[in-house]
Each structure stands twice: as C-alpha cells, then as structure tokens.
Amino acid sequence: MNSFRVTIVGFMLLLVGCQATSLIRKEANLRDQVNDLYIDQAMDNLVRARTHRPFVLMDYRDFQFQGTDAYGGGGGFGYQSASIIQRVFNIDVAGERKEYLAFKSNPITDRNDVYKNYIAFASTQGLLNVSDEKPDHSYLCRYYCGQYYWIPEESAPVFMSLVMDGNMLLGEETAPVAAYERIILGVETLGVLPLEGDSDQEDHQVVAMITLDAEVPASDGTMVVKLRDGRTVRFRYTKMAINSPKDGELVKQFQATWNRKQSGFDIHDLKGLPVRIYSDLFPPEASSVDSFQQEVIDGLQDIRALQFMDGRSSF
Length: 315
What we know:
The protein is α+β, with helices and mostly antiparallel strands. Helix content is about 30%, strand content about 35%. The chain has 3 domains: about 1-100, no CATH class; about 110-165, no CATH class; about 180-300, Elongation Factor Tu (Ef-tu), domain 3 (Beta Barrel), CATH 2.40.30. The strands form 3 sheets. The protein has a 6-stranded antiparallel β-barrel with strand order 8-9-12-11-10-13. Strands 3-2-1-4 form a 4-stranded antiparallel beta sheet, with helices on one face. Strands 5-7-6 form a 3-stranded antiparallel beta sheet, covered by helices on one side. A hairpin with a 3-residue loop joins strand 1 (about 60-70) and strand 2. Residues about 70-95 have low confidence and may be disordered.
C-alpha cells in the first residue's frame, strides 16, 4: 500500500514538472503569436499602401491564451493565463489538449500621422522594395500578385520604429525627432564588400566616405536624401572606422554602407544634394512647429511655387 502511495506521489511530482515546462513553452508561444500579429499587419498594410489600396490599422488588447489538458477520468491540468494556474491530477495518462488565443481589436482612427508614416515608408525605395524575383537577402518579404515586396536588412530599424509607434507600443508620443540639414559635398568609395556566393558586382555592399558642408556631432544615425529623379532614399551611417572620433565630437565626414542594386543608387547620385541627418545620440533640438503643422507649411510653399511658375501668384 505504501509503495502504491509513493508511486502516485512520484507520478504527480513528475506531472507537475512536465506541466511547468509546458507552461513556459506556452508563454513563449503566446509572445510569438502576438509578435506575428503586429508584423503581419504591418507588412500587409505596407503592400496595400504600395499598391494604392485602402488599409486600416488595428489595435490588439486583452490577450488571453487559454487551454485545457484533460486526463482520463476527468482529471487534468487547466490554465487561463501565465499567472493563473489550477491543477487537478489523475494518474490516467490518456488525455487531450485544447488551446487558443483570444483577444479584442478595434481600428485605429485617431492617428493620422501613423497612416502617413505607412504611406511614406511604402513609397520610399530602399525601405520597401518591389521585384519580380525573390531577393536573396531581405529582412521581411511578402509575395503578392506576381511580385515580391521586401524590406532590406539595413531598413530593419526603421520598420521596427514604424510598428512600435504605429501600434502605440512605445507609450506616450514624444516630440518629433529633429534632423540636421546639410549638403553632401563629396562621396568617396572606400571599398566593396561582396555578398557570400554572389559574383554580381552591382549586388555588392559599397562602403563610402561622405563629406558634409558643415559639422555634425559624431555618432551613428540615418541619412535621408531626395535624389534628382524624385526618389527618397535612406541609409545608415557610422563614425569613420579609421581615426574614429569620440561620440559628440564635431566632424564633417562619416562612413556609410549600402547595397547598390537593392537600394537603386550609387555614390555619384549623392554628391551635391541636401541631406537630412538623424543622429542616434545627438539630435538637434526639435522645432516648436509640430510635424502636422510643418506638413501644412510645406504644402503651402509648394502651392505658392506652382502658382508663381504659372504667373498667377496672389500672395
């Protein structure tokens, strides 16, 4: 009789350990499913924006990962969330498991800035690219109507910010990030980094030194340039690898790396153009004019320029 009790207690302890391990897996699975919801929504909406189709952003909340493990004659293990656990054990090993993820969602209708950010991301070459063939290297990729829509690896930080801000995962909105306005005086090739197993010279990573007309605090960051053909391109920059300055030291030269084929531009396309520089560590003080007001001002200036060219200025 005592040996039978020991057997039951031992089986129950083993079952508790198994269920604890299972619970850890369920928590990880829950996080993966929630992450996939936001990532899939972002990519689907970017494709819709690129193909000029209306799209809507949904918020997700009140997540519940529910499941029940039933064993034999009615005994089992059940849970409703990672913090609420109830256990009923039975030594009968026969059973079944049911689980599902439940949540609530509503369309986001009060964040016009986020919708504009999605449209801007989708229409910017180098952030969301479109090709007939599947890219060899990409951060995320979707296939739609015979074409591949993909985000290059160097644009991953911008995509992360888009998703985190778009779904209000970053908390309260902060002041818009300001940029340094500079002119690119020169671009010099420092080297070419071939991709593994790729002999196409145009598909290599180019490493370049960019010289500006005025100093900027040394740090890593993002440069945004509007090319002469009207396209807007973005690429990451770093401090110079040789004689690297200290963070915050005022310098005119930075190092940048991008894929010529995937990004669609080369060093000669940048020389002489204005550039907006977004420093990771030392951004300039933000303007008192918010982003929406600035957009209105920019639109008004465009209208004035068009009317002046037509000879019908009324300002």
